[in-house]
Amino acid sequence: MRVQEMLMTKSPAIFSVGPDDSIEEALQALAEKNVGVLLVVEDGKLLGIVSERDIVREAAELGVALFAESVSAIMTTDLIIASPDDELGYLITTMTNQRIRHLPVMDDEELIGIISIGDVVKSMQAKYEGELHHLRHYVAE
Asked: pLDDT for 118-130, tens place per residue?
């Protein structure tokens, strides 16, 4: 299965914040949207990603002073991205080896979605259930 197919099975919503938004605003957005990451976007350009984990790590170091900081102060800017043609195996390997749970999906310079580890697991489950169904049908004949 390719990333493009995975994106068709999920909501097209991309939740984001701006680099100048406060950490408090990012936390509110994470809670309201019930997501683990927000993409940091300005003028339609992907600048970074900020996760609950990023915020917790910084809070452990800075305490309440963190809430006065902007998202740009803690966002990850060295992004690993996926393309629409990437295969499920690439996602599994990349997410496992890099210890990341989310990959922005870019088509050339355009941000078209985000894939989570949950999306990957769901796709793997569907793939294996299909194979199992096929094998059961084959054996029953």
From this structure: 899 888 776 666 6
Q: How many CA atoms lie within 13 A of 74 on its CB side?
A: 29
Q: Contacts from 60-69 at CB under 8 Å and sequence distance 24+?
A: 66/23, 67/22, 67/23, 67/24, 68/22, 68/23, 69/22, 69/23
Q: Global pTM?
A: 0.83
Domain count, the chain: 1
Query: Do residues 37 and 45 make contact, with C-beta atoms less than 8 angstroms apart?
Result: no
Q: How confident is the model at residue 10 (pLDDT cuts 50, 70, 90)?
A: confident
Cα–Cα dist 7/113, whole Å: 7
CATH number at residue 78: 3.10.580.10
